[in-house]
Amino acid sequence: MKRNQMIMAAMFFVGCGFTMNVAMAQQNGISRTDLVQEAISIKGHEAVQVRVDFEPGAVSIKHSHPGEEVAYVLEGSLEYTLEGRQPITLEAGEALFIPSGVAHLAKNVGGTKASELATYIVETGKTLVEPAK
Q1: S-S: 132 plus which of 45, 67, 89, 103, CB 3.0-4.6 Å?
Q2: Of 114, 97, 103, 96, whose CA–CA distance to 58 is shortest?
Q3: pLDDT tens by residue, 11-37
Q4: Does this model's pTM top 0.90?
Q5: Is 11 part of a structural domain of the chain?
């Protein structure tokens, strides 16, 4: 019985943390849905795939990842600004490669919701999104 109570308490705290993260993301008009997180054949790396939805005008924080990202725009228009490069606007059906460790941000520049499918090959155990300094 004690073991079940501990498991339920742990699930509650994990759920609360997830809810707070979702609420914070939705507060700035961005929500993320985790789809896949699996080890791959490259030792110490994993594949992660998420859907990111942007309300009109929403802008991500400037951040980087501990590995490569391929961003595929599912709907709408997203402007990506990668450190050291001019901004690029992608429409639904277009993709962008973001190298490991490169600080970047994304902004919905359209008048409707925009969404991307982000696929990462990253180091296992590292924080997926690192705010840029």
Answers
A1: 103
A2: 114
A3: 433 343 333 344 334 458 999 999 999
A4: no
A5: no
